[in-house]
Amino acid sequence: MDTRLQTLTQWVRQFPGLEQAEPAAVSGDASFRRYFRVTNAEHTPFIVMDAPPAHEDCRPFVAIARHWHRQGVAVPEVIGDDLTQGFLLLEDFGDRLMLGELSPRSAETLYRGALTELLRIQQVNETPDYPLPPYDTALLDREMALFPDWLLTKKLGLTLSNGEQAMLDTAFAYLRESALAQPEVTVHRDYHSRNLLVRDTTERPGVIDFQDAVRGPVTYDLVSLLKDCYVRWPDADVSRWVEHYRQLSAEAGLHNADPDTFRQWFELMGMQRHLKAAGIFARLSLRDGKDGYLADIPRTVRYLIEASGRQGALRHLYEWLSDTVMPEIERLIGPATRGDAP
């Protein structure tokens, strides 16, 4: 018996118009959170988030959602909350994830809308109620360590030599220095096609899953979106969107980087993110039993190989990823070509 669902149902029925609500499961995500849809007497839908307090802290979500909503970012309105039990009643943006709506015909419009919304996020003012934590050295290093800890060692069964570990340490330091040198903005930290919802009445996507927001590098969310771990676009498209956003963000006063500098930031930031993501995907499988994310590892490591191949300072990493790591990934998980955009 799902006792939390029973408690959630009783909680949501206290709201006017929802006295007879029957929560219907919508989805879960990579965390312990679950989502349900309820409908009031006027047939207006709402989302109920179930975030077990033993595993999830709703306070950052609520604080960021309310502040960003006041600042004009398209995040769901928080209609009701019970932080003790871990229940939230939210505005419903629907089920049309950007990932499922993407096609060669729709991509330009959808990405331009997502980039415009990203600019709003990056310009959000700090709130004294919940100052965003910094994307600092400790966090950057902790995230990159997920790659050797969970993917290389635990999933692939590789034993790193002293030379390989030293090579990784050098590469991580190079990526960390680049990230810390970038101008700081508000960072969603998971801004991609599975966290953006297409809406009928506007080109602005609905933005979800923002509770881990930080203050950090100006290209972080951009690379999350354009080098998405779940869908891959031709380099020409990515380059065009990167330059479009460089100009938008420069005009907004977020940086003064020229095209080459901005693209270098973007490439190196992508490597840091993809090291993190590949490790998380392995951890989700091994620790949490969520094997669906394994199929995204080959694409994610392919990004790493291509980006390192364009960096003279990372030539040894490129060769090792190409010759040692990717063959093991393809043998144990699958090919790296799945998920390319049509």
Characterization of this structure:
- This protein is α+β, with helices and mostly antiparallel strands and 342 residues long.
- The protein is 48% helix and 13% strand.
- The protein has twelve helices and nine strands.
- It has helices at 3-12, 59-70, 98-101, 107-122, 137-144, 146-155, 162-181, 220-226, 235-251, 259-286, 297-309, 315-332; strands at residues 24-28, 34-39, 45-50, 78-82, 87-91, 184-187, 196-199, 202-207, 214-217.
- It has a five-stranded antiparallel beta sheet, with helices on both faces.
- It is globular and about 65 Å long.
- 39% of the residues are buried.
Q: Could you name the key traits of this structure?
A:
five-stranded antiparallel beta sheet, 13% strand
Shape: globular
Order of helices and strands: HEEEHEEHHHHHEEEEHHHHH
The number of strands is 9
For the largest sheet, list the strands in their spatial order. Answer: 1-2-3-5-4
Q: How are the elements arranged and paired?
A:
Blueprint: H1 3-12, E1 24-28, E2 34-39, E3 45-50, H2 59-70, E4 78-82, E5 87-91, H3 98-101, H4 107-122, H5 137-144, H6 146-155, H7 162-181, E6 184-187, E7 196-199, E8 202-207, E9 214-217, H8 220-226, H9 235-251, H10 259-286, H11 297-309, H12 315-332
Antiparallel strand pairs: 1-2, 2-3, 3-5, 4-5, 6-9, 7-8
Helix pairs in contact: 4-8, 4-9, 5-7, 6-10, 7-10, 8-10, 9-10, 10-11, 11-12
